[in-house]
């Protein structure tokens, strides 16, 4: 597979930024479907695909989300065209006969709640990262964040389901004029080892 060009690398990594201020431009549902079509192509263990996404767009849904947020996250979430609740589904083993049909992968998880939780969280988080990269690839800006009460979000949006919230991602078209200077990044030798 050939290496992608510098423009694509800039879009995904080098010049992409975390946004907190948004242009007044909507993100249509077709774009969200395209986004998911990319995310689902990323690898997960045994193709378990445990991530679930709640796209919070309407004023009513935003009003339900706002009380769950820390104060510093309220305005940027209120003004974002879309806020994605990145979740994982604890019932993902039920989908394995379809998603990983060549062996009985569902049996790997029978009676193993800890393994289910770890696998769902790890792979759902990975898929949340794919969501950020896929959104950037589609020309969207992202504002991923913690700073909310998971239990409150689960009660407001996931009640009665096997889905659990992990983190949030604001999506839209950021206002580049309001970006602060980029924060430093660590050097290779400070955070990496080659064994």
Automatic annotation (TrEMBL):
The record, for InterPro entries, names: Nitroreductase, Nitroreductase-like, Nitroreductase_HadB/RutE, RutE-like
> What does the record give as EC number?
1.-.-.-
Where in the numbering of this chain does the Nitroreductase domain appear?
A: 21-173
List keywords of the entry alphabetically: Flavoprotein, FMN, NAD, NADP, Oxidoreductase
Q: What is the top EC class of this enzyme, as a single word?
A: oxidoreductase
Which SUPFAM superfamilies is this protein grouped with? Answer: FMN-dependent nitroreductase-like
Cofactor(s) essential for the protein? FMN
Concerning Gene3D superfamilies, the annotation shows: NADH Oxidase
Q: Which domain of life is it from?
A: Bacteria
GO MF entry, a single one = oxidoreductase activity
Q: Record's family?
A: Belongs to the nitroreductase family. HadB/RutE subfamily.
Identify this protein by name: Putative NADH dehydrogenase/NAD(P)H nitroreductase GHC57_16220
């Amino acid at each position: 597979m050939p290496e992608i060009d510098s423009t694509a690398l800039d879009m995904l990594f080098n010049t992409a930024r975390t946004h907190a201020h948004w242009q007044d431009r909507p993100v249509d549902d077709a774009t969200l479907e395209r986004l998911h079509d990319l995310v689902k192509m990323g690898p997960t263990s045994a193709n378990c695909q445990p991530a679930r996404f709640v796209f919070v767009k309407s004023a009513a849904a935003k009003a339900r989300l706002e009380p769950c947020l820390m104060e510093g996250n309220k305005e940027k979430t209120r003004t974002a065209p879309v806020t994605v609740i990145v979740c994982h589904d604890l019932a993902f083993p039920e989908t394995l006969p379809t998603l990983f049909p060549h062996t009985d992968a569902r049996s790997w998880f029978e009676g193993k709640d800890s393994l289910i939780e770890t696998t769902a969280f790890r792979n759902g988080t990975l898929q949340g990262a794919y969501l950020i990269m896929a959104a950037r690839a589609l020309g969207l800006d992202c504002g991923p964040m913690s700073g909310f009460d998971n239990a409150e979000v689960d009660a407001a949006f996931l009640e009665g389901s096997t889905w659990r919230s992990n983190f949030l991602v604001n999506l839209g078209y950021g206002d580049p004029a309001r970006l602060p200077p980029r924060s430093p990044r660590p050097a290779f030798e400070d955070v990496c080892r080659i064994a």
